[in-house]
Amino acid sequence: MDIVGLAAPANAIEAIFHRQRSLSRTAPPPDLAERLDRLRRLRGLLASHEEAFASAISDDFGHRPAIETMLTETLFLLGEIKHTVRSLKGWMAPRRVATQLQFWPAKNRLLPQPLGVVGVIAPWNYPLQLTLAPAIGAIAAGNRVMIKPSEFAPRFAGLLREAVGKSFDATELAVTGIENGVAEVFSALPFDHLVFTGSTKVGRIVAAAAGRNLTPVTLELGGKSPVIVDRSADVAKVAERVAYAKLLNAGQTCIAPDYVFVPEAMRDALAEQLQSAMTRMIGSAPANPDYTSIISDRHYARLDGLVADAVARGAGLVQPQAIDTAAWKSRRKFPPTILLGAKPEMAIMQEEIFGPVLPIMSYRDAGEPIAYVNAHDRPLALYWFGEDTATRDDVLARTVSGGATINDCLLHFAQVNQPMGGVGASGCGAYHGPWGFDAFSKLKPVFYRSPLNRFADAYPPYGPKIARLIKLIRFVS
Ligand code: NAD
């Protein structure tokens, strides 16, 4: 890499990788006790740095309520560790697999084994959760892990590196720096598995880099997650739940509702109730401490541009009353914005919004939202609101998304026994709980031959005895 000043960090990253890789090939795989010890150290690190992490993340954003970090990041991770610690013995055990009659009385087992070294590349929007959640699954599966945090959350990244350095040997778990060019060096390493969480655009680059090493990837990407409101829905409930999901982390959430489809006759009532729900939640002044800032001026300007383009193309703008634009901008807080009459040709309908701006499109026929979703990239999440179960099941059956929540948003993500992952342009692979353990393991099929079985001895010279054996097997199987 000929990036000025990168030589030292690049060498250090490569050195850690080679030490981890070499140990993963020479030392015996960590047993249950060792894995539990690593998970408990991770839990200790989280507990002892809970406030420091929340404060570093808030500084990186400009402002983020500590309670939001605890709710969406710390609590999630502690739950994931608890679930993993409780279940790990069972996940690690060899799995019974049925054996066909002709091989009886032999047995089949699937043996979960660590892959070796797992790399994790994380984004800035939930910097704690998205660095450590893949690490929990990878450590549980017995791997050594390297993490590359995002350069957009530098205070958090420095703190994580320091905290992990104190609790772990770098051969168990290591966090890299975030200097320019580190991301490219990192994604070029021949990991045994690479987890990338970030944009679809960078996901393509990372997948290509991993492909050169035949490194398998889990890609946790973004996209436009729709909300479909059915005519059987309760507008007040929709408004409250969608408003919350859109304002959480100021919309900088991969599975945030991106845009809404609502029956034409319900559109204005929904917009009105959305606006009052948003005002109830975060008030109408930018100083509100329960509302998160946008991560950078560049990201703020992008949102401004998307709104301006939509308005120039005819969208109706709904924002808090008497808005003091400069005051919001100086705190990098983006005013909650609803765009009525959004159209597919607007820029806001063509890229992931990733901010507190909610375009609303209306429909007449229940087939329209389904056709629209299917004509675009597969979304990471889909939300459906209503009571008509036949329409609900039709939408679920005819659309493909990474996940879905019915009559709320985001909550499918919080389920420890469900996999989290996208599909198509929103990602591939999945993790969390047992799904993460399996994703970061080699499930090795092993056949234990029985000395009593004769079928496996069907060696030449073939004669009538073997022909009879084949006939018998065909008859009974
Ligand atoms: P990003 O793609 O810009 O960056 C993600 C990570 O990739 C960062 O660590 C960055 O340093 C690294 N990176 C950048 N260029 C790279 C390169 N050339 N090679 C290797 N690594 C490189 O994403 P972001 O802005 O940090 O995060 C926002 C995006 O992440 C949104 O699209 C959001 O939907 C998505 N996201 C997805 C999930 C999920 O679970 N599916 C969760 C959170 C965020």
Sum this structure up briefly:
By secondary structure, the chain is of the alpha/beta class.
Helical fraction: 40-55%
Low-confidence stretches: none
Shape estimate? globular
- Going by CATH, the architecture of the largest domain would be 3-Layer(aba) Sandwich
Biggest pleated-sheet summary: 7 strands, mixed
Count of extended strands: 16
The secondary-structure class comes to alpha/beta
CATH superfamily of the largest domain: Aldehyde Dehydrogenase, Chain A, domain 1
Write the layout of secondary structure elements.
Layout: H1 7-26, H2 32-61, H3 66-92, E1 95-97, E2 107-114, E3 117-121, H4 129-140, E4 144-148, H5 154-167, E5 173-175, H6 182-187, E6 193-197, H7 200-212, E7 217-220, E8 226-229, H8 235-247, E9 259-263, H9 267-282, H10 297-312, E10 316-318, H11 325-330, E11 337-340, E12 357-363, H12 367-374, E13 381-385, H13 389-398, E14 403-406, E15 427-428, H14 433-439, E16 441-448, H15 464-476
Parallel strand pairs: 3-4, 3-6, 4-5, 6-7, 8-9, 8-13, 9-12, 11-12, 13-14
Antiparallel strand pairs: 1-2, 2-16, 7-15, 10-11
The chain binds nicotinamide-adenine-dinucleotide.
Task: Report what the structure shows.
- By secondary structure, this protein is α/β, with parallel strands linked by helices.
- The chain folds into two domains: 10-221 and 427-442, Aldehyde Dehydrogenase, Chain A, domain 1; 226-416, Aldehyde Dehydrogenase, Chain A, domain 2.
- 44% of the residues lie in helices and 16% in strands.
- The chain has helices at 7-26, 32-61, 66-92, 129-140, 154-167, 182-187, 200-212, 235-247, 267-282, 297-312, 325-330, 367-374, 389-398, 433-439, 464-476; strands spanning 95-97, 107-114, 117-121, 144-148, 173-175, 193-197, 217-220, 226-229, 259-263, 316-318, 337-340, 357-363, 381-385, 403-406, 427-428, 441-448.
- The strands form three sheets. A seven-stranded mixed β-sheet has the order 10-11-12-9-8-13-14, sandwiched between helices.
- Helix 7 links the parallel strand 6 and strand 7 (217-220).
- Helix 2 (32-61) packs antiparallel against helix 5, helix 3 packs parallel to helix 4 (129-140) and helix 3 (66-92) packs across helix 14.
- The longest helix has 30 residues, at 32-61.
- The mean pLDDT is 95.
- The site of nicotinamide-adenine-dinucleotide (NAD) has 28 residues, from helix 6 and helix 7.
